[in-house]
Amino acid sequence: MLSAKSLFQEILDDDESFRLFCSIAAGGESQGGWENGRIAALVPTGLRELAPKVARHGADEDKHGRIFNALLKQRGLRPVPVPYETDYTLLLERHGIGLAHDRLSGEEPLTERDIIVYLAHSRVTEQRASEQMRLLLRHFSDHPVLGRAVRMISRDEDNHLAYCHEELLRFARAGHGRTIQSVLRECARAEIRVYRDVSLAVMAHMGEVLRWSRVRGAVLAAGIHAMYAYEWLVGWRRMVSLRQPALRDALGTPAAPETEFA
Predict the structure, then answer these.
(1) How far apart are the C-alpha atoms of 16 and 127, rounded to whole Å?
(2) How crowded is residue 60: how many other Cβ atoms within 10 Å of its Cβ?
(3) With 60 as the cut, is the pLDDT of residue 257 above it?
(4) pTM score
(5) Residue 26, SS3?
(6) Fewest C-beta in 10 Å: which of 29, 92, 235, 250?
(7) Are the C-beta atoms of residues 130 and 158 closer than 8 Å to each other?
């Protein structure tokens, strides 16, 4: 029977599929760490109070990249190059979502609108990350190898999402509500297309590694397309709503040393 747990368990049990999974995850997290680090350095003068939170966001993403690399090392595995078509963060940037890397590589300070775009992009992508980690948490929180990593990353992703909600609401109260909603909708529509394409690519690569039958591959692809149809019609709305989070100032303090993963 196909289920999220059985599918991921199969990927976990095979060295090559696990190596690909962790390499893709580590690459995306490390890229997110770099992006947030550059944004923190370029926050405009009038918004400097945000810089430590953006830097904390980036530090968390860097930590997640190290966690996935540590999981590989524990099994005596080395990372593999990430196939272009599976690179979620790169493809989002190629679709014009978020802040361009050319801009982040420079030294010119960002604008207030740039910060709103960054927060809106993060609100959408952190929704996805939070949901994915909660799914893994449901099935693998007590796993002897993955459990600690899943619990740690899931907590961080929830904090990132709370931070995005809180900061965007602050900008909305300052008169940027229309801009925020426009950017959120644009990001959400693009993200669900990229997520569909990346999911299909990842499943295709996993299918080759694990030698899935054509029927099984077709069933999984159909499921991905069905999820995309749902998200395109109504599911995108969960990515654009804003509400005051229960946890306030989620990134207002530096990461505690004990959260490091060895």
Answers:
(1) 29
(2) 24
(3) no
(4) 0.94
(5) helix
(6) 235
(7) yes
Residues 6+ apart with CB under 8 A from 200: 221, 224
* Contact partners, residue 107, CB within 8 Å, separation at least 6: 42
Question: In sequence order, what are the residues at sequence separation of 6 or more whose Cβ sits closer than 8 angstroms to the Cβ of residue 15?
Answer: 75, 77
180, 163 Cβ separation under 8 angstroms: no
3-state secondary structure of 79: coil
Pull the structure tokens for residue 85.
């078509």
- Which helix (H) or strand (E) segment holds residue 163: the answer is helix 147-171
CA distances from 16 to 21, 131, 203 (A): 9, 25, 14
Q: How many CB atoms lie within 10 A of CB 245?
A: 17
Please say if the pLDDT value at position 72 is more than 80. yes
pLDDT of residue 254: 67
Averaged confidence pLDDT in the chain: 94
pLDDT mean over 195-207: 97
CB atoms inside a 10 Å sphere around CB 246: 8
> Please, are residues 79 and 23 in contact by the beta-carbon 8 Å criterion?
yes
Question: CB–CB of 33/7 below 8 Å?
Answer: no
Q: Measured at the alpha carbon of residue 196, what is the angle toward residues 193 and 201, in degrees to the nearest 5? A: 125
Nearest to 41 by CA among 63, 60, 58: 58
Mean pLDDT of 19-48: 96
